[in-house]
Amino acid sequence: IQALEEGGLASSLPQQQQPRMMEESKHSKKEAKDQKQEAKGLDDELEDEKLILKSQDKGCKGYPVAKKTAVMSTLVKTVVEGDKESTEIPLPNVKGSILRKVITYMEYHTDNPPKEIEKPLKSPNMADVVSEWDAHFVEVPQDVLFELILAANYMDIKPLLDLTCAKVASMIKGKSPEQIRKLFHIQNDFSPQEEEAVRAENKWAEES
Questions:
Q1: pTM for the whole structure
Q2: CA distance 61 to 88
Q3: d(Cα 56, Cα 28) in Å, to the nearest integer?
Q4: What is the pLDDT along the chain (208 residues), one digit of tens a residue?
Q5: Closest Cα to residue 107, out of 39, 162, 53, 167?
């Protein structure tokens, strides 16, 4: 009782426990640091893991792409999930020059997902509809644009398909059927009734 009143025991207990508490604190901090480094290691491993995308070009050795980028394609993701040992993904419906552009798109948007494109298009100017980078990406010749549409559809890359289709929609926005046929070198084999039906189906591209 006297020791308690004098504070001798009360003061001595924390002094005895303090080294142990400090040791436990150090141990907890070390565990947290190890867990953080382990998580970072897994992220780095995913970054380093590569898939080889192979185009239809004869003798194509393929294009190495980070796995986290390549799986933006639902087709590629499905193949990889079905065969986890697979590292080479053949894409027989895509030529090399187009695949390189598709890869450029996926790499840019891996950690920078594009915003959904509003419909109907508010402007025929793509820079008013999408980011500056995306608008510049689809400033390509018509044949390249249509091959990008086919590649995006085949590889199942929805944001790229939306972007390329929006580009086509911007090109025909506000134009008459005759102007559209001239723009895309299309021979008119529609009856007036069929023409009106097509216009009705695609009205969203013309509305402002």
A1: 0.68
A2: 10
A3: 54
A4: 454 445 544 455 455 555 666 666 666 666 666 665 554 544 454 556 999 999 999 888 899 999 999 999 999 999 999 988 889 999 999 999 999 999 999 999 999 999 999 888 888 999 999 999 999 999 999 999 999 999 999 999 999 999 999 999 998 887 777 777 787 777 767 677 777 777 777 666 555 4
A5: 53
Burial environment of residue 150 by CB neighbours within 10 A (0 to 12, 13 to 18, 19 or more): middle
The secondary structure of 53-111 as a DSSP string is EE-SSTT---EEEEHHHHTTSHHHHHHHHH-TT--EEE-TTS-HHHHHHHHHHHHHHSS
For 68-102, letters b (16+ CB in 10 Å) and e give: ebbbbbebbeebbeeeeeeeebebeebbbebbebb
Tokens 């009360």 locate to: 10
Record the tokens describing residue 39, joined without a space. Answer: 């998580």
**Which H/E stretch holds residue 52?**
strand 50-54
Q: What distances in angstroms separate CA 96 from CA 1, 54, 164, one per listed residue?
A: 89, 8, 18
CB 62 within 8 A of CB 56: no
